[in-house]
Amino acid sequence: MTSDRRRFLTAGFGATAAVAACTSGLMTPARSHAGETPSPGGDLNSDPNVRAAAAQDFGHLVHKQPRAVFRPATRSDIAGLMRHAAQQGLKVAARGQGHSIYGRALAEDGIVIDMGTVNTIHTVQPDRIVVEAGATWGSVLEATLAKGLTPPVLTNYLGLSIGGTIAVGGIGATSSRHGMQTDQIVELDVVTGAGNELKCSATSNPDLFNAVRAGLGQCGIITQATLRLVRAPDRVRRYQLLYRDLASLTSDQRRALTEQRFDQLQGALLPDRDGGWRYQLEGAVFYDRDAAPDDKTVLSKFSDDRSMAVIADQTYHDDAFAFSKFETLLRSKGQWFNPQPWLLTFLRGSNAQEVASEILARLTSDDIGPFGRITYYPLFTSAFRTPLVRLPDEGVVFPFNVIRIPASNELATVELMVAQNRLLYDLIRKAGGVQYPVGAFPMSVNDWNDHFGSSLPLLAAAKRRHDPGNSLTPGYNVF
Question: Does 327 have pLDDT greater than 50?
Answer without folding.
Answer: yes
